[in-house]
Amino acid sequence: MESLVAPAVELIGIRSTADRPAELGRALGCVLDLVGPGFEVRRFESRGKPSALVSSGGFPRIILNAHLDVVPGTPDQFTARREGDLLYGRGAHDMKCAAVVLATVFRDLAPRLPYPIALQLVTDEEVGGFDGTGHQVAQGVRGGFVVIGEQSNLCVVTESKGILRVRLTASGRTAHAAYPWLGENALLTVVEAVNRLLSRYPVPVAEEWTTTVNVARIETSNAAANVVPADATAWLDIRYPPSEAGPGGDAPAWLREIAGPGVEVEVEAAGAPHHADPLSAEVVALRRAAESVGYEGALLRKHGAADGRFYSAHGVDAVIFGPGGDGQHGPHEYVDLRTLQPYHDALTTFLHTVHP
Questions:
Q1: Distance between CA atoms of 272 and 1, rounded to whole angstroms?
Q2: pTM across the whole model
Q3: CATH number of 2-160+273-353, picked from 3.30.470.20, 2.40.40.20, 3.30.240.20, 3.40.630.10
Q4: CATH 3.40.50.720 fits 162-271, yes or no
Q5: How far apart (Å, rounded) are the C-alpha atoms in residues 97 and 335?
Q6: pLDDT of 115
């Protein structure tokens, strides 16, 4: 385990957020240096987001996928802090420590396996994944099976929700606030549309496998309290399971029907739900590998969208399988160091036992 901590600490120290392209490249270089020479490296770039596919040659039977970007954090979060068996820092759990393990496993096993494998390194998962895994898949990258090292405490995630990033916009007519009947309040129009969405999809009081709507921002260019706003916009993040027909069909039409008249709907980004066959030989082998190191290897569903959806859309099974920890995207994010060696060993067992 200790040999995995030092490179993880170094990687956590890199502020690889979406607004820092140089640091994204630095994080990618750090992991490529950890892998070392002797492998085929294909480099990609899309809209300023670099990525790479490192392989042992040939069509990869297994792809190990890791994202190296993180959400923004305070400066102190980019200095890793160890407290006993816990390692704190931005990206410790999501998912820089897992990336170190995946890179190490690839480096050590790729030359010795009886089939080709690949290590996929991307730097945009936190902002949608379209310019990393999505871009590589669009360029023809495929594999027989994909393991994504997102956090799972050595459970196997075979299903995750789809995502819609939506902008609702309304235009009105300005007027003096003392005479609101002379204007048309665009802000009220947007708020009413948001309320209709939330009435249909209320925020669950506890975990529930259903569609959720997060209201991320409502704004107007109006700058005076005594003026009726003539424009307004709402930003929404919608997550939905494969079973929900509305979001999974014609999303703009579905949203326009709920939002009502006077609201323009723009779907800025969309990602389909992800599903992998829980009875496939690879999933069964991965679960058994987790069991071999003392974990249950249970099947899970994730509410967050994941890069596996890009493969799922092309008929390639992808699962999430990562170490344990907690607090991702929060101020006290940590990885449980006690899970890193079992995670490493389970991946090693899986790669040795999966059928070529």
A1: 36
A2: 0.86
A3: 3.40.630.10
A4: no
A5: 7
A6: 97
